[in-house]
Specification:
about 350 residues, alpha+beta, seven-stranded mixed β-sheet, 3 helices, 15 strands, elongated
Amino acid sequence: MNSRSRNESGVVMVLVALLVVAMLAIAAIVIDGGQAFADRRRMQNAADAAAFAGARVLHQVRFASSTTDLAAAVRAVAADNDADPGLVTCQVIDGAGSGVAPCSPNSAWASRRDAAGVRVTTEVSRSTVFGRVAGVSEMSASASAAAVLDNLVAARSPWMVCGNPRLPGGFDLIDPTTRALRGDAVLRKLYGERGSALPDARGIPIGGRTAATCGLSPSWNGIVDPASQPVRLGQFALADRGKQVGRYQYDDILAGVGGCPENFADGEVTRCLALVPVFDEVDADAHTAHIAAWAVWRIRYDQQGAVKYWGQFVSAGLARAGPTSREPLFGGSTLVVRLTE
């Protein structure tokens, strides 16, 4: 073999080697890059789920006497969505997204009025398949999300409940001084399942003829007039004077399952959960009532007797949608969990 042939053979070998390296680089981009992109999407889903769950736990700790560890709950949800729990970070934030305190321990933020949500960062690392050729043996993907609690200010509801004990026939739901709903623990003891202040084992009368109407017309049957829909906090709602057959309609905005369907007095559903506004004063001449708070009730339908709908107190509750306000959060308010980033 002459020198020219040897030189050409050497050039070919170099070109083949370069081509192999280039092919491996392309494979690294396609395979490892594609996996990194998929990991990034999974981490975003994990961050969203963990932030949403964290905001719910924050609500339970601040307003429902829960002792659930916020940081542990966030890590658990993130891990369920394939994030590395050891790489999860969690921070409690205010309604504007500014940091308030670390998620752990709960005592660092549980008593702070500006604690309104959480920001979570998730991450996962993976060994590369072809990236080692380029000196990259591991790739990481991370994402962040924040979820905050806002006050629910409006929703549809077919009924409303008199919650001022100073009104004739009113239930002890609202503190007349602060005009805020009493705490969940207190109200569950009074008006929850087997509550000590229930007038009937089925609950308190929600819809139907009742002896006490808190100053509204004696013909009032607990129903909100459709003209007042949606019902808004801090405003007066018109009490319906007649029986509105087929008008039991409202937004399905409860967080979770078990919400009441439209007009559920059809024999298929006998109990469900509904957000029902609570009023604390009335304008008898205008036949209206001032809406002071929301509460989640377990509604029972009973086709026998004058009272058709009975309610047992569940909680101030969480909603998953609806118009909101970023006023300071307080106990006894119904809140909406929103992802903000």
